[in-house]
Specification:
Helix 10 links the parallel strand 3 and strand 4. Helix 3 crosses helix 4, helix 7 crosses helix 11 and helix 8 packs parallel to helix 11. The protein is α/β, with parallel strands linked by helices. It starts with 9 loop residues before the first helix and ends in a 6-residue tail after the last helix.
């Protein structure tokens, strides 16, 4: 049984149409994204003031997104806000979506496959290719960081990138580690950040400070979008629907695999040569370690 698709977020719709909007409506969209989602919960006149335009322009944007007016857009944002900060405890009883007779294997298969397919269906290919282009650029330094659970995604990405290109780093999650990394961040840096609900202040702060130092920000997040979206150059959302009360990272891992594939294509022959050199070096290290142990000396 397939799960019920999550409706597309207002933020996702705004980002999709942003480049095609008239200038005044672009300002409204950017104001909404910069303070997402709470900016859209402000009165109509307040949003118009933030965008330095008229209330009528805000209404036109709401109609363009398919809402019958500004109140309906606000209702959608209120629903998103509730989902955005939903805890595992709140999701007990809602997990999965399969019928009562479904076993855990069938339920998990349906939920995870459907969430992964939905992630790819809703992701603009241009965003993925833009992220790959930034990561593959040999003149840039690439680093990655994540939160309590998503740090493993940052480590996974960097473990692959180290074999494909130089100057790639994993940034540990503590504020002192972030501060030390930021000391050397500049306009030739690319920072890949992972931030999923319930979003971490440290990760959001790292995004803002790195962006202020002119680094390019690639953000992997959920459909409700981390507040770090406001400073991100590329946003890659993934579904988090799970057969348990805990959000799933399975679609995010699939998205990373696709990103790595795109990076491999961008780097080309230089990547293949580096992987070959890595394999040879790894074999040499293992061989030397085995010889050292065979001489009766303890392995380190």
């Amino acid at each position: 049984m397939l799960t019920t698709p999550e409706p597309r977020t207002v933020a996702a719709q705004l980002r999709e149409v942003l480049a095609k909007l008239p200038k005044a409506e672009q300002r409204v969209a950017r104001a909404l994204l910069a303070g997402y989602p709470t900016a859209g919960l402000e009165p109509l006149a307040t949003v118009a003031g933030l965008a330095q335009t008229s209330p009528a322009t805000v209404l036109r944007l709401a109609y363009r997104l398919g809402f019958e007016g500004y109140p309906e857009l606000q209702q959608a944002l209120k629903r998103e806000t509730q989902q955005r900060y939903s805890s595992p405890l709140a999701q007990y009883g809602d997990a999965g979506g399969g019928g009562e007779t479904d076993g855990v294997m069938a339920r998990s298969r349906a939920v995870l496959l459907d969430a992964t397919a939905m992630t790819f269906d809703q992701l603009p290919e241009g965003e993925l290719l833009r992220a790959a282009e930034l990561i593959a650029d040999p003149s840039r330094r690439v680093s990655a960081a994540g939160g309590r659970f998503s740090a493993i995604l940052a480590q996974y990405l960097i473990a692959h990138l180290r074999q494909l290109r130089p100057n790639t780093f994993y940034v540990a999650g503590s504020p002192p580690d972030h501060a030390a990394h930021l000391l050397d961040v500049g306009r030739r840096d690319v920072l890949v950040l992972f931030d999923y609900r319930r979003y971490q202040r440290e990760t959001i702060a790292l995004a803002r400070k790195a962006a202020a130092r002119n680094a390019k920000i690639i953000l992997l997040t959920d459909p409700w979008l981390s507040p770090a979206t406001a400073v991100a150059d590329v946003v890659l959302p993934a579904q988090v629907r799970s057969p348990s009360p805990f959000d799933s990272l399975t679609p995010a891992v699939a998205l990373i695999e696709a990103l790595i594939a795109a990076v491999v294509e961008q780097i080309g022959e230089a990547g293949r040569e580096r992987v070959a050199e890595y394999d040879q070096m790894a074999d040499d290290v293992l061989r030397e370690d085995a010889d050292y142990v065979s001489e009766g000396k303890p392995a380190v």
